Request: fold
Amino acid sequence: MELAALEKQLRILQSESTAKIEAATSLADLDDLGTSLLGKKGALTDLLRGIGSLSADDRPKIGALANEVRAAIESALKSRRTVAGAAELSARITSETEDATTPGPLPAFGSLHPIPETISAIAQIMGSFGFTVVEGQEVEDDVTNFQLLNIPEDHPSRDLWDTLYLREPGRLLRTHTSPGQIRTMRTIEPPIRVILPGRCYRYEAVDASHGFEFHQVEGLLVDRGTTLADLKGILDELARGLFGPGTRTRFRPGYYPFTEPSVAVDVSWDGSKDGWMTILGAGMVHPIVLENGGIDPEKHQGFAFGLGVERIAMLRHGIPDLRALLENDLRLLRGLR
Ligand code: DAH
Reply:
């Protein structure tokens, strides 16, 4: 190639290259341009291959020109890099900056199922009166579940408490938490103030308000000079704690073999036909039951109550069907929060 032609091509390369460099907007593009123009296999090296056919006089001229072109391209790259780098940095700063005032995402909190939630509400209220939580046992024996509670084997009231029996004779699934009264009296000296929450079983046809498996909370207080007035006072507070300060209570005569006298306790309730809803059974612990628990009824008296947790949970949360409490449908649980 002739000197003049090569010179011309070098000038063209220079002007074309600087134009491309000016048009580039990103550092990555500029890196690519650097390689394709000045790299070992780049455009400049390519052109200089023609140098071999020049005369020895001309070669230094082309060498000098090539250096000039290289320097021009390098300086164009350098200044363009500065501009593009600054633009990229400011774009990153805008796009990556967090707004520190945006609220953080809330983690998904779980919540208690209405049954344990109701039990803990009861435990909290009763705890404020000095009652502690004690657990009975789900597998009971006939003696403790019935006989020591003054329900003899042939007693007609047993029909109320028919249950599921284990193969082992005399063993059954407890029908109420009341046998826990006997076990507590046999292990703790008066004064006794306990509640016994737990699962109970009955041989029942299941419907919206009956289950064969359900929860109760038993309450037991044994002390000197305990009267029905003590029972009334504490159950009033329990009802108000569970259903609100305006709640009224009504004590009706009831019958349970293990209490004498026995009462049924209702709370005022807008949703029911007559404005009342029965929430529990209670009474003064029968002297025979105290004796069965190893307590002298001449010295100590007591009151007891037993309430159905499902019923209370349904009333507190407006759940119409008891079976919903066993189905573990998360939509129900989320709706109750
Ligand atoms: N155990 C009774 C039941 O399951 C409820 C009950 C009533 C418990 C009166 C008591 C009580 O402690 O005094 O139907």
